[in-house]
Protein backbone atom coordinates (compact mmCIF):
# COMPACT_ATOMS: atom_id res chain seq x y z
CA UNK A 1 0.00 0.00 0.00
CA UNK A 2 1.25 3.46 -0.92
CA UNK A 3 0.14 6.59 0.96
CA UNK A 4 0.90 9.97 -0.65
CA UNK A 5 0.45 13.26 1.21
CA UNK A 6 -0.07 16.42 -0.89
CA UNK A 7 0.00 19.68 1.02
CA UNK A 8 -2.13 22.63 0.00
CA UNK A 9 -2.07 24.98 -1.75
CA UNK A 10 -0.03 22.91 -4.25
CA UNK A 11 -2.59 20.13 -4.61
CA UNK A 12 -5.35 20.07 -7.25
CA UNK A 13 -7.96 21.29 -4.75
CA UNK A 14 -5.49 23.71 -3.06
CA UNK A 15 -6.21 21.80 0.18
CA UNK A 16 -4.32 19.11 2.10
CA UNK A 17 -4.96 15.78 0.31
CA UNK A 18 -4.03 12.20 1.17
CA UNK A 19 -4.06 9.61 -1.61
CA UNK A 20 -4.04 5.88 -0.81
CA UNK A 21 -2.95 3.40 -3.43
CA UNK A 22 -4.16 -0.06 -2.38
CA UNK A 23 -2.81 -3.20 -4.07
CA UNK A 24 -4.43 -6.60 -4.26
CA UNK A 25 -7.62 -6.05 -6.23
CA UNK A 26 -11.18 -4.91 -5.52
CA UNK A 27 -11.52 -6.67 -2.13
CA UNK A 28 -8.49 -4.88 -0.66
CA UNK A 29 -9.72 -1.49 -1.92
CA UNK A 30 -13.19 -2.15 -0.51
CA UNK A 31 -11.83 -3.01 2.95
CA UNK A 32 -9.61 0.09 3.04
CA UNK A 33 -12.62 2.20 2.08
CA UNK A 34 -14.83 0.57 4.74
CA UNK A 35 -12.16 1.22 7.38
CA UNK A 36 -11.90 4.88 6.40
CA UNK A 37 -15.67 5.45 6.31
CA UNK A 38 -15.96 4.04 9.83
CA UNK A 39 -13.95 7.03 11.12
CA UNK A 40 -15.67 10.22 12.30
CA UNK A 41 -15.73 13.05 9.77
CA UNK A 42 -14.98 10.87 6.73
CA UNK A 43 -17.56 10.44 3.95
CA UNK A 44 -17.74 9.58 0.27
CA UNK A 45 -17.10 12.47 -2.11
CA UNK A 46 -20.09 13.92 -3.93
CA UNK A 47 -20.11 13.92 -7.75
CA UNK A 48 -17.46 16.34 -8.97
CA UNK A 49 -16.53 17.43 -5.45
CA UNK A 50 -12.76 17.51 -6.00
CA UNK A 51 -13.09 19.66 -9.13
CA UNK A 52 -15.69 21.81 -7.36
CA UNK A 53 -13.29 22.41 -4.46
CA UNK A 54 -10.55 23.32 -6.95
CA UNK A 55 -12.92 25.89 -8.50
CA UNK A 56 -14.14 27.33 -5.17
CA UNK A 57 -10.53 27.61 -3.92
CA UNK A 58 -9.48 29.50 -7.05
CA UNK A 59 -7.27 26.77 -8.50
CA UNK A 60 -9.27 26.70 -11.76
CA UNK A 61 -12.14 28.76 -13.21
CA UNK A 62 -15.57 27.45 -14.17
CA UNK A 63 -14.75 26.91 -17.85
CA UNK A 64 -11.71 24.82 -16.89
CA UNK A 65 -13.86 22.82 -14.46
CA UNK A 66 -16.42 22.10 -17.18
CA UNK A 67 -13.57 21.00 -19.47
CA UNK A 68 -12.85 18.17 -17.00
CA UNK A 69 -16.30 16.73 -17.86
CA UNK A 70 -15.47 17.01 -21.56
CA UNK A 71 -12.16 15.20 -21.00
CA UNK A 72 -14.00 12.31 -19.35
CA UNK A 73 -16.65 12.16 -22.08
CA UNK A 74 -14.30 12.62 -25.07
CA UNK A 75 -15.21 10.34 -27.95
CA UNK A 76 -12.17 11.05 -30.16
CA UNK A 77 -8.55 12.17 -29.91
CA UNK A 78 -9.54 15.52 -31.40
CA UNK A 79 -12.30 16.08 -28.81
CA UNK A 80 -9.84 15.13 -26.05
CA UNK A 81 -7.27 17.63 -27.37
CA UNK A 82 -9.87 20.43 -27.49
CA UNK A 83 -11.03 19.64 -23.93
CA UNK A 84 -7.41 19.56 -22.73
CA UNK A 85 -6.81 23.03 -24.19
CA UNK A 86 -9.87 24.33 -22.34
CA UNK A 87 -8.74 22.64 -19.12
CA UNK A 88 -5.38 24.39 -19.50
CA UNK A 89 -7.23 27.73 -19.66
CA UNK A 90 -6.71 28.70 -23.32
CA UNK A 91 -10.35 29.74 -23.81
CA UNK A 92 -10.55 31.31 -20.35
CA UNK A 93 -7.58 33.53 -21.20
CA UNK A 94 -9.39 34.98 -24.21
CA UNK A 95 -12.50 35.65 -22.11
CA UNK A 96 -10.41 37.39 -19.44
CA UNK A 97 -8.76 39.58 -22.08
CA UNK A 98 -12.20 40.54 -23.38
CA UNK A 99 -13.39 41.42 -19.87
CA UNK A 100 -10.25 43.48 -19.24
CA UNK A 101 -10.87 45.55 -22.38
CA UNK A 102 -14.46 46.17 -21.26
CA UNK A 103 -13.49 47.16 -17.70
CA UNK A 104 -11.03 49.68 -19.17
CA UNK A 105 -13.85 51.03 -21.33
CA UNK A 106 -16.17 51.23 -18.31
CA UNK A 107 -13.51 53.14 -16.37
CA UNK A 108 -13.21 55.64 -19.25
CA UNK A 109 -17.01 56.07 -19.34
CA UNK A 110 -17.15 56.47 -15.55
CA UNK A 111 -14.66 59.33 -15.65
CA UNK A 112 -16.76 61.12 -18.25
CA UNK A 113 -19.90 60.66 -16.15
CA UNK A 114 -18.17 62.04 -13.03
CA UNK A 115 -16.53 64.95 -14.90
CA UNK A 116 -18.96 65.88 -17.69
CA UNK A 117 -17.31 69.28 -18.19
CA UNK A 118 -14.31 67.48 -19.73
CA UNK A 119 -16.40 65.16 -21.90
CA UNK A 120 -16.77 65.57 -25.63
CA UNK A 121 -19.82 63.39 -26.33
CA UNK A 122 -18.98 62.72 -29.97
CA UNK A 123 -15.44 61.57 -29.17
CA UNK A 124 -16.62 59.38 -26.29
CA UNK A 125 -19.31 57.75 -28.44
CA UNK A 126 -16.77 57.06 -31.18
CA UNK A 127 -14.43 55.48 -28.61
CA UNK A 128 -17.26 53.29 -27.28
CA UNK A 129 -18.19 52.17 -30.81
CA UNK A 130 -14.56 51.30 -31.57
CA UNK A 131 -13.95 49.28 -28.38
CA UNK A 132 -17.35 47.55 -28.41
CA UNK A 133 -16.94 46.78 -32.11
CA UNK A 134 -13.61 45.04 -31.49
CA UNK A 135 -15.16 43.01 -28.67
CA UNK A 136 -18.08 42.01 -30.92
CA UNK A 137 -15.61 40.83 -33.58
CA UNK A 138 -13.64 38.79 -31.03
CA UNK A 139 -16.81 37.11 -29.76
CA UNK A 140 -17.85 36.42 -33.36
CA UNK A 141 -14.55 34.59 -33.94
CA UNK A 142 -15.25 32.39 -30.94
CA UNK A 143 -18.86 31.72 -32.00
CA UNK A 144 -17.70 30.65 -35.46
CA UNK A 145 -16.05 27.65 -33.81
CA UNK A 146 -19.27 26.70 -31.99
CA UNK A 147 -20.64 24.39 -34.69
CA UNK A 148 -17.39 22.43 -34.99
CA UNK A 149 -16.88 22.46 -31.22
CA UNK A 150 -20.35 21.13 -30.52
CA UNK A 151 -19.82 18.34 -33.06
CA UNK A 152 -16.47 17.39 -31.52
CA UNK A 153 -18.03 17.40 -28.06
CA UNK A 154 -21.29 15.58 -28.75
CA UNK A 155 -20.73 13.82 -32.07
CA UNK A 156 -22.81 13.88 -35.25
CA UNK A 157 -26.09 12.00 -34.89
CA UNK A 158 -26.05 9.91 -38.07
CA UNK A 159 -29.04 7.86 -39.28
CA UNK A 160 -28.40 5.03 -41.75
CA UNK A 161 -31.65 4.65 -43.71
CA UNK A 162 -32.95 2.87 -46.79
CA UNK A 163 -35.10 -0.01 -47.94
CA UNK A 164 -34.59 -3.52 -46.53
CA UNK A 165 -31.55 -5.45 -47.82
CA UNK A 166 -29.70 -2.48 -49.32
CA UNK A 167 -26.74 -2.97 -46.93
CA UNK A 168 -27.46 -0.67 -43.97
CA UNK A 169 -26.38 -3.11 -41.28
CA UNK A 170 -23.35 -4.16 -43.35
CA UNK A 171 -22.36 -0.47 -43.54
CA UNK A 172 -22.66 -0.14 -39.75
CA UNK A 173 -20.44 -3.20 -39.31
CA UNK A 174 -17.91 -1.82 -41.81
CA UNK A 175 -17.71 1.57 -40.10
CA UNK A 176 -17.39 0.09 -36.60
CA UNK A 177 -15.05 -2.68 -37.82
CA UNK A 178 -17.17 -5.11 -35.79
CA UNK A 179 -20.17 -7.37 -36.39
CA UNK A 180 -22.55 -5.25 -34.35
CA UNK A 181 -25.63 -5.84 -36.50
CA UNK A 182 -27.10 -9.10 -37.78
CA UNK A 183 -26.86 -9.32 -41.58
CA UNK A 184 -29.11 -11.72 -43.57
CA UNK A 185 -30.86 -11.82 -46.93
CA UNK A 186 -34.23 -11.82 -45.14
CA UNK A 187 -36.02 -8.44 -45.42
CA UNK A 188 -36.90 -6.91 -42.05
CA UNK A 189 -34.02 -8.51 -40.09
CA UNK A 190 -33.30 -5.21 -38.30
CA UNK A 191 -36.35 -4.51 -36.12
CA UNK A 192 -34.98 -1.90 -33.73
CA UNK A 193 -32.45 0.94 -33.85
CA UNK A 194 -28.84 -0.11 -33.19
CA UNK A 195 -26.62 2.68 -31.85
CA UNK A 196 -22.81 2.82 -32.01
CA UNK A 197 -20.08 5.49 -31.83
CA UNK A 198 -17.28 5.64 -34.42
CA UNK A 199 -14.62 8.23 -35.22
CA UNK A 200 -14.02 9.33 -38.81
CA UNK A 201 -11.09 11.68 -39.51
CA UNK A 202 -11.24 12.84 -35.89
CA UNK A 203 -15.02 13.41 -36.04
CA UNK A 204 -17.17 11.35 -33.64
CA UNK A 205 -20.32 9.90 -35.25
CA UNK A 206 -23.23 8.49 -33.29
CA UNK A 207 -24.48 5.91 -35.79
CA UNK A 208 -28.12 4.82 -35.79
CA UNK A 209 -28.77 1.70 -37.89
CA UNK A 210 -32.49 1.76 -38.59
CA UNK A 211 -35.05 -0.75 -39.75
CA UNK A 212 -35.66 -0.81 -43.50
CA UNK A 213 -38.32 1.75 -44.43
CA UNK A 214 -41.16 0.04 -46.29
CA UNK A 215 -44.86 -0.74 -45.96
CA UNK A 216 -45.33 -3.93 -43.92
CA UNK A 217 -48.10 -5.88 -42.20
CA UNK A 218 -45.69 -7.26 -39.56
CA UNK A 219 -46.58 -5.47 -36.31
CA UNK A 220 -43.06 -5.60 -34.84
CA UNK A 221 -41.41 -4.50 -38.08
CA UNK A 222 -43.93 -1.67 -38.43
CA UNK A 223 -42.86 -0.35 -35.00
CA UNK A 224 -39.23 -0.50 -36.19
CA UNK A 225 -40.13 1.48 -39.32
CA UNK A 226 -41.81 4.17 -37.20
CA UNK A 227 -38.70 4.39 -35.04
CA UNK A 228 -36.64 4.77 -38.20
CA UNK A 229 -38.77 7.75 -39.22
CA UNK A 230 -38.25 9.28 -35.75
CA UNK A 231 -34.48 8.77 -36.06
CA UNK A 232 -34.60 10.74 -39.32
CA UNK A 233 -36.02 13.72 -37.44
CA UNK A 234 -33.25 13.54 -34.80
CA UNK A 235 -30.32 13.07 -37.19
CA UNK A 236 -27.71 15.73 -38.03
CA UNK A 237 -26.57 13.58 -40.97
CA UNK A 238 -28.44 11.02 -43.07
CA UNK A 239 -26.65 8.19 -44.86
CA UNK A 240 -29.23 7.14 -47.45
CA UNK A 241 -28.28 3.67 -48.72
CA UNK A 242 -29.44 2.46 -52.16
CA UNK A 243 -28.90 -0.85 -53.92
CA UNK A 244 -27.01 -0.08 -57.13
CA UNK A 245 -27.74 -3.53 -58.59
CA UNK A 246 -31.48 -2.83 -58.92
CA UNK A 247 -33.58 0.03 -60.34
CA UNK A 248 -34.45 2.96 -58.11
CA UNK A 249 -37.78 2.43 -56.31
CA UNK A 250 -40.47 5.08 -56.45
CA UNK A 251 -40.72 5.25 -52.65
CA UNK A 252 -36.92 5.80 -52.40
CA UNK A 253 -37.14 8.74 -54.81
CA UNK A 254 -40.09 10.14 -52.87
CA UNK A 255 -38.22 9.93 -49.54
CA UNK A 256 -35.11 11.50 -51.09
CA UNK A 257 -37.26 14.42 -52.21
CA UNK A 258 -38.59 14.90 -48.67
CA UNK A 259 -35.05 14.91 -47.26
CA UNK A 260 -33.47 17.17 -49.91
CA UNK A 261 -32.96 20.08 -47.48
CA UNK A 262 -31.19 17.90 -44.91
CA UNK A 263 -27.48 17.13 -44.66
CA UNK A 264 -27.38 13.86 -46.52
CA UNK A 265 -24.98 11.54 -48.31
CA UNK A 266 -26.44 9.04 -50.78
CA UNK A 267 -24.55 5.74 -50.79
CA UNK A 268 -25.00 3.64 -53.91
CA UNK A 269 -24.05 0.24 -52.49
CA UNK A 270 -23.20 -3.07 -54.21
CA UNK A 271 -21.12 -1.36 -56.88
CA UNK A 272 -19.26 -4.65 -57.40
CA UNK A 273 -22.42 -6.10 -59.05
CA UNK A 274 -23.87 -5.19 -62.49
CA UNK A 275 -25.45 -1.75 -62.07
CA UNK A 276 -29.12 -1.11 -62.86
CA UNK A 277 -29.75 2.06 -60.87
CA UNK A 278 -30.30 5.34 -62.74
CA UNK A 279 -28.41 8.20 -61.05
CA UNK A 280 -29.87 11.17 -62.96
CA UNK A 281 -33.06 11.43 -60.81
CA UNK A 282 -30.84 11.32 -57.70
CA UNK A 283 -28.51 14.04 -59.03
CA UNK A 284 -31.56 16.26 -59.54
CA UNK A 285 -32.10 16.13 -55.75
CA UNK A 286 -28.61 15.66 -54.24
CA UNK A 287 -25.31 17.34 -55.29
CA UNK A 288 -23.03 14.95 -57.17
CA UNK A 289 -20.29 15.29 -54.52
CA UNK A 290 -22.75 13.89 -51.96
CA UNK A 291 -23.23 10.65 -53.93
CA UNK A 292 -20.77 7.90 -53.04
CA UNK A 293 -20.44 4.57 -54.83
CA UNK A 294 -19.54 1.71 -52.49
CA UNK A 295 -19.35 -2.03 -52.14
CA UNK A 296 -19.55 -2.62 -48.41
CA UNK A 297 -19.16 -6.36 -48.92
CA UNK A 298 -15.98 -5.90 -50.97
CA UNK A 299 -14.79 -3.11 -48.62
CA UNK A 300 -14.66 -0.56 -51.43
CA UNK A 301 -15.47 3.14 -51.09
CA UNK A 302 -15.13 3.59 -47.30
CA UNK A 303 -12.41 6.23 -47.78
CA UNK A 304 -14.66 8.14 -50.20
CA UNK A 305 -17.49 8.08 -47.66
CA UNK A 306 -15.24 9.33 -44.86
CA UNK A 307 -13.98 12.15 -47.10
CA UNK A 308 -17.54 13.16 -48.01
CA UNK A 309 -18.54 13.34 -44.34
CA UNK A 310 -15.51 15.50 -43.48
CA UNK A 311 -16.20 17.83 -46.42
CA UNK A 312 -19.86 18.19 -45.48
CA UNK A 313 -19.17 19.32 -41.91
CA UNK A 314 -15.65 20.75 -41.89
CA UNK A 315 -14.98 21.70 -45.50
CA UNK A 316 -12.57 18.78 -45.76
CA UNK A 317 -10.43 19.27 -42.65
CA UNK A 318 -10.24 20.68 -39.16
CA UNK A 319 -7.86 23.50 -38.33
CA UNK A 320 -4.87 21.78 -36.76
CA UNK A 321 -3.06 24.85 -35.44
CA UNK A 322 -5.88 26.20 -33.24
CA UNK A 323 -7.76 24.06 -30.77
CA UNK A 324 -9.69 26.93 -29.15
CA UNK A 325 -13.23 25.74 -29.81
CA UNK A 326 -16.41 26.81 -28.04
CA UNK A 327 -18.43 23.63 -27.53
CA UNK A 328 -20.57 24.09 -24.41
CA UNK A 329 -24.18 25.25 -24.85
CA UNK A 330 -23.90 27.45 -21.73
CA UNK A 331 -20.82 29.12 -23.17
CA UNK A 332 -22.46 29.71 -26.56
CA UNK A 333 -25.57 31.23 -24.94
CA UNK A 334 -23.61 33.63 -22.73
CA UNK A 335 -21.32 34.70 -25.60
CA UNK A 336 -24.36 35.50 -27.73
CA UNK A 337 -25.92 37.49 -24.87
CA UNK A 338 -22.69 39.47 -24.33
CA UNK A 339 -22.41 40.13 -28.05
CA UNK A 340 -25.99 41.44 -28.16
CA UNK A 341 -25.38 43.72 -25.16
CA UNK A 342 -22.37 45.23 -26.93
CA UNK A 343 -24.38 45.72 -30.12
CA UNK A 344 -27.07 47.46 -28.08
CA UNK A 345 -24.38 49.80 -26.69
CA UNK A 346 -23.17 50.62 -30.22
CA UNK A 347 -26.74 51.31 -31.40
CA UNK A 348 -27.34 53.50 -28.35
CA UNK A 349 -24.36 55.73 -29.21
CA UNK A 350 -25.73 56.16 -32.72
CA UNK A 351 -29.16 57.05 -31.34
CA UNK A 352 -27.74 59.75 -29.04
CA UNK A 353 -28.75 58.01 -25.80
CA UNK A 354 -27.06 59.40 -22.63
CA UNK A 355 -23.74 57.80 -21.76
CA UNK A 356 -24.85 56.62 -18.29
CA UNK A 357 -27.55 54.49 -19.98
CA UNK A 358 -25.07 53.12 -22.52
CA UNK A 359 -22.85 52.10 -19.62
CA UNK A 360 -25.51 49.61 -18.47
CA UNK A 361 -25.23 47.59 -21.71
CA UNK A 362 -21.43 47.50 -21.48
CA UNK A 363 -21.59 46.37 -17.85
CA UNK A 364 -24.12 43.67 -18.80
CA UNK A 365 -21.67 42.31 -21.38
CA UNK A 366 -18.85 42.35 -18.81
CA UNK A 367 -20.99 40.44 -16.29
CA UNK A 368 -22.18 37.91 -18.89
CA UNK A 369 -18.58 37.15 -19.80
CA UNK A 370 -17.89 36.85 -16.07
CA UNK A 371 -20.51 34.13 -15.79
CA UNK A 372 -18.51 32.10 -18.30
CA UNK A 373 -15.47 31.81 -16.06
CA UNK A 374 -17.46 31.79 -12.81
CA UNK A 375 -16.70 35.30 -11.56
CA UNK A 376 -20.41 36.07 -11.36
CA UNK A 377 -22.44 32.91 -11.02
CA UNK A 378 -25.09 31.63 -8.60
CA UNK A 379 -24.67 28.69 -6.22
CA UNK A 380 -27.53 26.76 -7.87
CA UNK A 381 -25.77 26.85 -11.26
CA UNK A 382 -22.51 25.66 -9.67
CA UNK A 383 -24.33 22.73 -8.04
CA UNK A 384 -26.03 21.86 -11.34
CA UNK A 385 -22.74 21.85 -13.27
CA UNK A 386 -20.82 19.70 -10.81
CA UNK A 387 -23.70 17.24 -10.34
CA UNK A 388 -22.93 16.04 -13.89
CA UNK A 389 -19.56 14.66 -12.81
CA UNK A 390 -18.94 11.06 -11.87
CA UNK A 391 -17.74 10.19 -8.37
CA UNK A 392 -14.08 10.76 -7.65
CA UNK A 393 -13.53 13.68 -10.03
TrEMBL record:
It is found in: Cytoplasm. Mg(2+) binds at residues 169, 190. InterPro entries: G_TrmE (IPR031168), GTP-bd (IPR006073), GTP-bd_TrmE_N (IPR018948), GTPase_MnmE (IPR004520), MnmE_dom2 (IPR027368), MnmE_helical (IPR025867), P-loop_NTPase (IPR027417), Small_GTP-bd (IPR005225). It is an enzyme of class 3 (hydrolase). Residues 155-314 form the TrmE-type G domain. Keywords: Cytoplasm, GTP-binding, Hydrolase, Magnesium, Metal-binding, Nucleotide-binding, Potassium, tRNA processing. The keyword Plastid does not apply. The keyword Metal-binding applies. It holds the Pfam family MMR_HSR1. Binds 1 potassium ion per subunit. K(+) binds at residues 165, 184, 186, 189. Its main location: cytoplasm. Its cofactor is K(+). Its EC number is 3.6.-.-. SUPFAM superfamilies: P-loop containing nucleoside triphosphate hydrolases (SSF52540), TrmE connector domain (SSF116878). It comes from the Bacteria. GTP binds at residues 165-170, 184-190, 209-212. Homodimer. Heterotetramer of two MnmE and two MnmG subunits. Exhibits a very high intrinsic GTPase hydrolysis rate. Involved in the addition of a carboxymethylaminomethyl (cmnm) group at the wobble position (U34) of certain tRNAs, forming tRNA-cmnm(5)s(2)U34. Belongs to the TRAFAC class TrmE-Era-EngA-EngB-Septin-like GTPase superfamily. TrmE GTPase family. HAMAP family: GTPase_MnmE. This is tRNA modification GTPase MnmE. It comes from Paenibacillus cisolokensis. The lineage of its organism: Bacteria, Bacillati, Bacillota, Bacilli, Bacillales. The gene is mnmE.
